[in-house]
Amino acid sequence: MHLLQKMYFEKTDLSPSDIQQLVHIASHMQYMADLYGSDIFLDCLVKGRMDQAMVVAEAKPNTTRSLYSESLLGQIIIEDNEPGVFHAFRTGKYVTGTRAITNERVTVEQRVLPITNSHKKVIGTLILEQDISKQIIQEQDVQWLRTTAEQLSETLWEVAVAETNLPTLIDEGVILCNGDGLFAYVNPTAQVLFRKWGYPSPVIGTPLASLSIEVFHQLMLQAKDSGVMSQEIKVGEHTIFIKAICIKRNDQYKGVMFLLQDVTELRRKEKQLMIKSAVIKEIHHRVKNNLQTISSLLRLQMRRIDCEQSREAFRDSINRISSIALVYETLSHGDIEYVELHVLIERIVSMIVHTMSHPDKNIRFKVISEPSVLPSEKATAVTLILNELIQNAFKHAFGKQVFGMIEVQMKRQSDRLTITVRDNGCGFNPEKLTKHSLGTKIVATLIKEELGGEICYAIDRGTCITFTFPCP
C-alpha cells in the first residue's frame, strides 16, 4: 500500500487526505471483484491533464476468469478508449452501459462510479468491467442479416421488374406490385390459387384495385406504414393467409410483395384437434364423476359397518379412488397431456387431511414444490404413491404424539423427478418393513412397473421415504 501511495503522489494532483480516502477504498476492491465477478479498477487523472487517467489500483475476481492476463497498474488511459471514465470525471455522475476496448482488444461494458472528497470534487473513478464480446458478435450478425435482407429485397424486385420467373419451388403464391400500384409479377403458385378460389388471376400491368378481393388494397396501405402486415380471410370455403411486405430501396418506397397461402386444410385439422381435445376432456370429466360416485357409495357402505378394521380398509380404498379422480378432474380442466404436479400434490394433501384428521392430534403439512409438469400417463401412478405414503404417515408415524409434521418435497434434476415424503414421527425399523402389506405392494409395484424408478427408506428424526423416476 505504501507503493500505491507513492504512485499517487508522483503522478496525480491529489492531496494527502484524498490519497488516504482512495487507499481505504482500494483495500475493499477485492471483495467487490469477487462479489460482482468483474474486473475492478481505480483510476485517477494524471497530474495537469484532463484527457489522461492512470490505473492506480486493480482487483481481479477469484470467482470467475479475469479479462486481463497482465497487471494494468500504472497504465495510462485515454478518452478515445474509455469515454465513460472521463465523462464521470467531468460531470461527477454515475455512468453505466458504456463500452470500452481494452489493450488486449477485448470489448467490455463498463460501470463507472465517481469518487468525491469532502469538497464534492471528483478525485477518482471506480470501474467495473464485464466482457461483452459475444454480444458484439450477435449484434454484428443481426446487422449482417438486416443488410442481406435489404439486398435480397432489391434483387427480388429487380428480378420481378425484369419479368423473369421466380423459382417455382416456392410453396406460397407471390405477387409483386410496383410503386404505382400495378401488378409487376405473379408467380405460377399464385395463379393456381386464384383459380382454385374462383377468381381471375391478376394480370401484369393492371392496377391492384382491379382485384375483387378488397383486402389486398387495405394490406398494401397498412404495409406502407408498418412494413409488414398480415391477415387471414375466408373466400368461399377456403381460408387464405395473406402477408404484405413493403419493399424499399435506399429508403424509397418501391412497391409491395404479397405472400399467399391456402391454410384451409391446416385450419380444418386444427378444428378437428380442438373437437377431439374437448371430447377427451369431457371423457375425463365423466370418469371423474363416476369415480366420485363410487367413492360416495363406498362411504355409505362404510357407515353401516361396525368393525373398525373393515372401516379402515374402506377408508383406504375411498382415498385411492379419490386420488385417481383428482387426476381426471385436473385433466378435464387443463392440458390433456400434462398435469401441474405441484397443484396435484397440494390437492392430495388437502384431501387426506380432510378424511384422516383426528380431533386429538394437530398434524401440520408442508409442501415444497417448484412448478413442474408431469405427463398425464404418469400422473395416476404418482398420485396413488403419494396417497399411500401420506396415509401411512398419518396412521403409523405419530402414535401418542399430539403434534406432528408431514412434509412433501419435489425436486427436478435434469430429466428425473425426486419426490420425498418426510415426517417427524417415531420412525420405524427398516428390517421389519411389512413388504406384504397392500399399501407397500402398491407403492413398490407402481414405482417399478409404471414409473421405472426406485425407492429409498431412511430414518431422519422420523421417517423419510424418497422415490425418483425418469421424467423428461
UniProtKB/TrEMBL annotation:
Q: Which InterPro entries match?
A: H_kinase_PdtaS_GAF_sf, HATPase_C_sf, HATPase_dom, His_kinase_dom, PAS, PAS-like_dom_sf, PdtaS_GAF, Sig_transdc_His_kin_sub2_dim/P
Pfam family of the protein (one): HATPase_c
Record's keyword terms, sorted: ATP-binding, Kinase, Nucleotide-binding, Phosphoprotein, Transferase, Two-component regulatory system
**Domain Histidine kinase, chain residue ranges per copy:** 282-472
* Substrates-to-products reaction catalysed: ATP + protein L-histidine = ADP + protein N-phospho-L-histidine
Provide a Gene Ontology MF annotation, just one.
ATP binding
Q: What is the E.C. number?
A: 2.7.13.3
Q: Which GO terms describe its biological process?
A: phosphorelay signal transduction system
Entry-linked SUPFAM superfamilies = ATPase domain of HSP90 chaperone/DNA topoisomerase II/histidine kinase (SSF55874), GAF domain-like (SSF55781), PYP-like sensor domain (PAS domain) (SSF55785)
PANTHER family per record: ETHYLENE RESPONSE SENSOR PROTEIN, TWO-COMPONENT SYSTEM SENSOR PROTEIN
Q: What is this protein called?
A: histidine kinase
* Source species of the chain: Kyrpidia spormannii
